[in-house]
Amino acid sequence: QVQLVESGGGSVQSGDSLRLSCSASGFTFENYAIRWFRQAPGKEREGLVCITTSKKQIVYAASVKGRFTLSRDNAKNMASLQMSSLNSDDTAKYSCAGRHSIVCKSNWDAYHFRGQGTQVTVSS
What we know:
The chain has no helices and 11 strands. By secondary structure, it is mainly β. Strands 2, 4, 5, 6, 9, 10 and 11 form a 7-stranded mixed sheet that branches. The chain has a 4-stranded antiparallel sheet with strand order 1-3-8-7, with no helix packed on it.
């Protein structure tokens, strides 16, 4: 069974850090580019960061660049998103998605597998 499962979400204070994990099963994780998305109530889904299969390219959205760090461990079938200096604008449901390709794409629909998401709430 193919699965992407996010974990690590929660409620934090402004300025805090949080680490999200994306655990994969049922497919060859190392052959998939991984992207994190988030969606806040009433807002469009936003692509945050993507890491290629080789880890040689990691592309961050301007809104999180310098604050978020994405890494992947192909041996553990896991991608981790380290988030720091969180603020209320970061409150959203965070989801990871996998694309069977060596390159990243921007849109949600380009990804073959998608997780259910984990909620992050930042209070000021």
